[in-house]
C-alpha cells in the first residue's frame, strides 16, 4: 500500500550504484562460475546479501543480452519474480551485503504508478540517470512481464498500472 490506501500489485527493485546511477545488481562471470547463472547468483549474494540464497535465478529468468560496442562486454539481463516475503528479506539483508557501501549505495523501489499531477511516479523516475541499458531493460521487463499496460509507454508521461 502506498500512503496507506493505494494498493500496489508489483514491486521492482533497482540499486543506486557507487557512481550515482541507477542499475540492476550484477557483475562479471569469474573462472570458478560454471555458467552465467552461477556467476549471477554469486554476484547477487555479494550485492544483496544472503537472503538471495533462498531462491536462484535460472535460465528461464533470462530476458535479453546486449554487446557493448566500446567495452567488448556482453551484458545479460534477467528478471526474477519473488514473493513479497522474499523481496522484504532481500531489502532487509542488503545493508549487510559484502558490496554494500562500496559498489552498491542502496536499493530503490521503482514507483510503478502515476501521481495525480500526471508527472510524478514512474515518469519522473525515468528521468534519473541510469547505467548503460538499465532504463530500457526496466521498460522492456515491465512490458514483457505485463506489469504495465501496453499503451502506457507512449510519451512515458502517464504509465498506467496493469
Describe this structure in words.
23% of the residues lie in helices and 15% in strands. Residues 157-162 have low confidence and may be disordered. It has one domain: Nucleoside Triphosphate Pyrophosphohydrolase, CATH 3.90.79. The longest helix has 13 residues, at 36-48. It is globular, with a radius of gyration of 16 Å. A hairpin with a 6-residue loop joins β3 and β4 (74-78). The chain is an alpha+beta fold and 162 residues long. The strands form 2 sheets. It has a 3-stranded antiparallel β-sheet, with no helix packed on it. The protein has a two-stranded antiparallel ribbon with strand order 3-4.
In a few lines, what is going on in this structure?
The protein has helices at 36-48, 84-93, 122-125, 134-144; strands at 13-17, 22-23, 62-67, 74-78, 104-109. The protein is α+β, with helices and mostly antiparallel strands and 162 residues long. One of its GO terms (cellular component) is nucleoplasm.
Oligomer description: single chain
Q: Residue ranges: pLDDT <50 for 5 or more in a row?
A: 157-162
Number of strands: 5
Name of the CATH class = Alpha Beta
Strand order of the largest sheet: 2-1-5
Order of helices and strands: EEHEEHEHH
Structural class: alpha+beta
Number of domains: 1
- Distance between termini? 16 Å
- Total helices: the number is 4
Q: What would the principal axes of the Cα set say about the shape?
A: globular
The third-level CATH topology is Nucleoside Triphosphate Pyrophosphohydrolase
- The percent range for strand residues is 5-15%
Helix fraction bin:
10-25%
CATH architecture: Alpha-Beta Complex
Q: Rg to the nearest angstrom?
A: 16 Å
Q: Tell me, rounded to a whole number, the average pLDDT.
A: 87
CATH superfamily: Nucleoside Triphosphate Pyrophosphohydrolase
Largest sheet: 3 strands, antiparallel
Cofactor: Co(2+)
GO molecular function: 5'-(N(7)-methylguanosine 5'-triphospho)-[mRNA] hydrolase activity; IDP phosphatase activity; phosphodiesterase decapping endonuclease activity; snoRNA binding
Catalytic activity: dIDP + H2O = dIMP + phosphate + H(+); IDP + H2O = IMP + phosphate + H(+); a 5'-end (N(7)-methyl 5'-triphosphoguanosine)-ribonucleoside in mRNA + H2O = N(7)-methyl-GDP + a 5'-end phospho-ribonucleoside in mRNA + 2 H(+)
EC number: 3.6.1.64
Amino acid at each position: 500500500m502506498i500512503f496507506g490506501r493505494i494498493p500496489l500489485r508489483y514491486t521492482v527493485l533497482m540499486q543506486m550504484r557507487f557512481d550515482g546511477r541507477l542499475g540492476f545488481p550484477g557483475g562479471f562471470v569469474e573462472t570458478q562460475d560454471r555458467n552465467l547463472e552461477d556467476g549471477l547468483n554469486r554476484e547477487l549474494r555479494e550485492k544483496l546479501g544472503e537472503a538471495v540464497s533462498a531462491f536462484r535465478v535460472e535460465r528461464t529468468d533470462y530476458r535479453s543480452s546486449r554487446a557493448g560496442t566500446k567495452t567488448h562486454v556482453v551484458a545479460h539481463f534477467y528478471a526474477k519474480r519473488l514473493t513479497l516475503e522474499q523481496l522484504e528479506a532481500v531489502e532487509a539483508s542488503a545493508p549487510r551485503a559484502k558490496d554494500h557501501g562500496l559498489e552498491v549505495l542502496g536499493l530503490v523501489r521503482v514507483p510503478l504508478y502515476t501521481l495525480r499531477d500526471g508527472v510524478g511516479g514512474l515518469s519522473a523516475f525515468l528521468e534519473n540517470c541510469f547505467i548503460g541499458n538499465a532504463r530500457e531493460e526496466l521498460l522492456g521487463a515491465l512490458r514483457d512481464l505485463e506489469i504495465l499496460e501496453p499503451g502506457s509507454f507512449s510519451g512515458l508521461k502517464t504509465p498506467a498500472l496493469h
